[in-house]
């Protein structure tokens, strides 16, 4: 992704300690490409946009979640998304036990994706083309390759670009997919973090991409492994484990949940705390996440983006 505005404070040097990771997931990847998603079964084909991480160990067979899920974190009880600040990491961690209520779907493969910023990249200029083959901007090759796999990103002029269509003869080849992709240039005031499978704005640490034949778009879900996880390296606030399915992914199939973090630094932090490909529990109809049915307004998303840009 509201009393639940997300807080993304500046990340201190602690982030240097965490492992790098990012995966893809946005509207563009709803259109299929060749290849099977076999990483979860121990194969080598990661979803498009996955960071060059060490190959994950083969996951153990999913087991039925226990009736009580124990969470280890610092600070007070888990906060609602965007809730008031919690205690800091100077406090000793303690466990929170929450009985799982609702329909437990089982263990899902977990990954992350974010929103690349042109300013963070360097390299030989590459033209980003729109669906009419007009040049949107000349961007560093590193950004071009990132936005190819992430599907959306932000340009130096502040505008957002997002996938429009593939098989564009005028576009450069995306090296990870071998596809020629054209993009739409979007109004940042309407799409500060890009758009999801519904065509509407998405929100960091609230939006997830899933296989919508498994969990439909617009469904609130609860993931206990994220309940109590800090939303920033300073541990100023904590996540409540509640998300909404607002996106799809070409290789987000079956039991797979791809969490939109919005920023690479947050991807790194969360991947350190809840490693990719280890498996998380997905619960539907959790009373704990009834509030997640509130979708942030555009104004709320804009305000969150402005706070992020000030960091």
Question: What can you see in these coordinates?
Answer:
This protein has 311 residues and is mainly β. The protein has two domains: 13-32 and 61-114 and 197-310, no CATH class; 118-186, no CATH class. It has helices spanning 141-150, 264-273, 298-310; strands at 68-73, 94-99, 103-113, 125-129, 135-140, 152-154, 160-166, 181-186, 207-210, 220-230, 238-247, 256-260, 280-284. The strands form four sheets. It has a six-stranded mixed barrel. The longest helix is centred in the last third of the chain and has 13 residues, at 298-310. The model is unreliable at 1-67 and 70-95 (pLDDT under 50).
Order of helices and strands: EEEEEHEEEEEEEHEH
Total helices: the number is: 3
Largest sheet: 6 strands, mixed, barrel
Identify the quaternary structure here. Answer: single chain
DSSP strand (E) fraction?
25-35%
Strand order of the largest sheet: 3-12-9-11-10-13
- Give the beta-strand count: 13
- Into how many domains do the coordinates divide? 2
Which spans of ≥5 residues are poorly predicted at pLDDT below 50? 1-67, 70-95
Overall radius of gyration: 19 Å
Q: Roughly how many Å apart are the termini?
A: 18 Å
Look at the structure and give the mean pLDDT: 73
Helix content: 10-25%
Envelope shape? globular
- The structural class is mainly beta
């Amino acid at each position: 992704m509201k009393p639940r505005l997300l807080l993304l404070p500046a990340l201190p040097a602690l982030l240097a300690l965490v492992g790098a990771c990012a995966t893809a997931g946005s509207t563009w990847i709803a259109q299929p490409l060749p290849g099977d998603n076999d990483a979860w079964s121990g194969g080598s084909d990661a979803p498009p946009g996955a960071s060059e991480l060490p190959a994950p160990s083969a996951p153990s067979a999913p087991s039925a979640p226990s009736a009580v899920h124990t969470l280890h974190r610092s600070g007070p009880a888990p906060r609602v998304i965007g809730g008031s600040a919690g205690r800091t990491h100077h406090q000793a961690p303690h466990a929170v036990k929450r009985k799982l209520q609702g329909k437990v779907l089982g263990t899902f493969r977990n990954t992350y994706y974010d929103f690349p910023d042109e300013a963070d990249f360097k390299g030989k200029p590459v033209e980003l083309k729109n669906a009419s083959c007009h040049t949107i901007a000349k961007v560093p090759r590193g950004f071009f390759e990132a936005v190819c796999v992430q599907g959306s990103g932000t340009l130096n002029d502040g505008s957002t670009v997002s996938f429009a269509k593939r098989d564009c003869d005028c576009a450069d080849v995306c090296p990870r997919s071998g596809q020629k992709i054209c993009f739409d240039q979007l109004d940042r005031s309407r799409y500060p973090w890009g758009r999801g499978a519904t065509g509407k704005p998405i929100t960091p640490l609230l939006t997830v991409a899933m296989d919508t034949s498994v969990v439909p778009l617009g469904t609130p879900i609860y993931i206990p492994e994220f309940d109590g996880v800090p939303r920033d390296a300073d541990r100023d606030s904590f996540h409540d484990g509640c998300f909404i399915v607002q996106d799809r992914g070409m290789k987000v199939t079956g039991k797979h949940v791809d969490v939109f973090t919005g920023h690479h630094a947050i991807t790194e932090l969360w991947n350190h705390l809840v490693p990719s490909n280890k498996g998380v529990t997905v619960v539907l109809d959790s009373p704990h996440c009834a509030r997640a049915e509130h979708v942030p307004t555009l104004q709320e998303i804009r305000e969150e983006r402005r706070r992020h840009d000030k960091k």
